[in-house]
Design goal:
By secondary structure, the chain is of the alpha/beta class. Helices cover 45% and strands 14% of the residues. Helix 2 crosses helix 8. The protein is globular and about 45 Å long.
Length: 260
């Protein structure tokens, strides 16, 4: 929905959201959903500035203010710089979605030190750096939303993905720690764990992809792949008044592939 056509009162009007890894796939969908709901958005990726600016243009077409910012979120200084740039432009930061992830397929005994460190830095440390940089602004405004995108490996471990299992499990542990410490400041923190979602992906990290994806599809209660918009809708729910009393939780958006 175009902001100019909707009048005032959009649910995220006046909020500023940073979404990492938002040049494509889930991050892009989340950024555009927030823009449609009234938020100003920061589009982030570690390269391809033109692609990031293209998503920012899409957000502007929805009536939002938007900026693109190239930053490697494995670098804490780069994250601080991005958050400060967002605060300088929009005056504050209210919502932080940590969406950057790699899903490396490596047998345990073949996982190198570099493999381990890259996966933990990308999937887990980046979420810590983003939250740490954003939380002072949220405390100041007495309102904030931290959303960490995890995945099935963090809750249902898979073979040959030890680094991913640890990092994704750690993401939700981080979420709970933030929820406990900052709840009285008006901040909620939650994890969204996508199920099988149609995205562009590196199939080298998905051996026997066709067989595995078909088996997972058959396991979903709803009988279909998820979409990036399904994940964006979950993030929107957590940021709107509907999510005010939800914190420290993991929301499995998996079509019933897993039930708890």
């Amino acid at each position: 929905m175009n902001r100019s056509q909707s009048g005032s009162g959009l649910p995220l009007q006046g909020r500023t959201a940073i979404i990492t890894g938002s040049g494509r796939n889930i991050g892009r969908a989340v950024a555009l959903a927030f823009a449609a709901q009234g938020a100003d958005v920061v589009i982030n990726g570690h390269g391809n500035a033109a692609a990031l600016e293209s998503v920012a243009d899409e957000a502007r077409a929805l009536g939002a203010k938007a900026m693109s910012h190239v930053a490697d979120v494995k670098d804490p200084d780069a994250v601080r710089g991005m958050v400060q740039a967002a605060a300088n432009k929009f005056g504050k930061v209210d919502i932080a979605v940590s969406n950057v992830s790699v899903r490396m397929h490596r047998p345990f005994l073949e996982t190198t030190d570099e493999d381990w460190n890259v996966v933990l830095a990308t999937n887990l440390s980046s979420a810590f750096y983003l939250a740490r940089a954003c939380l002072p602004f949220m405390q100041s405004g007495r309102w904030g939303r931290i959303i960490n995108i995890s995945g099935r490996d963090g809750f249902f471990p898979a073979a040959a993905r030890a680094a991913n299992v640890v990092s994704k499990g750690g993401v939700h542990a981080l979420t709970k720690a933030i929820a406990v410490e900052f709840g009285r400041d008006g901040v909620t923190a939650n994890t969204v764990a996508p199920g099988i979602v149609e995205t562009a992906r590196d199939l080298t990290n998905y051996p026997e992809a066709a067989r595995i994806f078909d088996a997972r599809l058959q396991a979903t209660a709803v009988g279909r792949w998820g979409t990036v918009d399904d994940i964006a809708a979950a993030c929107s729910y957590l940021c709107m008044p509907s999510g005010d009393f939800v914190t420290g939780q993991v929301l499995h958006v998996s079509g019933g592939e897993f039930m708890q």
